[in-house]
Amino acid sequence: MVMNRIPVMTADPTGSESTPDLDARSMQQLKTDDLALNIIMDRWSSRVASFVFKMTGSHALANELAQETFVKLYQARTRYEAKGSFSGYLFGIAANLVKNHRRWQMRHPTVSLDDPDFDTRENPAFIASHLGDPRGSLETNEALRTILGAMFSLPVDLREAITLFVDEGLSYREIAQVVGCTPKAVETRIYRARQILKIRLAGLDD
Fold this sequence. Notes:
Layout: H1 19-30, H2 36-56, H3 59-75, H4 86-107, H5 124-130, H6 138-152, H7 156-167, H8 172-179, H9 183-200
Helix pairs in contact: 1-2, 2-3, 2-4, 3-4, 4-8, 7-9, 8-9
């Protein structure tokens, strides 16, 4: 599903207005003005796509589900109430789309991150998108491959929690809103993820 952006001048995301205030105002505006979606997408589309990529390992799927996330957000605009954080609400939509895709994959088996033959460290698109400057040292590139491979080897629920906590800066309460569990359960998942990563990455300091 593809949503074409509406050409319009948007608010300056670096302005003095705080992110929560701007998000709340944009969602209120979106109820009567479709152009407000551009402001929201400017602020959040890259982060949503990044999150989906880290959950799926596919750039194409990340772009598709990120756009569908904003379609779902637009469809829910009249029902949205700012009871929790906007980031939790938005990433909750994205997380649900990822889960739905995984269910679809189970019914239509293809190569996926759950396939033991799929090695993220040998995926050209994955490597190219994360290694940065190709002139970097072999040691640096190999270390990054190891780190990313360790992240992608985490169970889905642990990877989801630690990605939202470390990369997206969500609180335990916000992550709980996204994944549908208690903040204490989120804390446990993040702890377990860190312990696993600590073991799998222990050799990097040698």
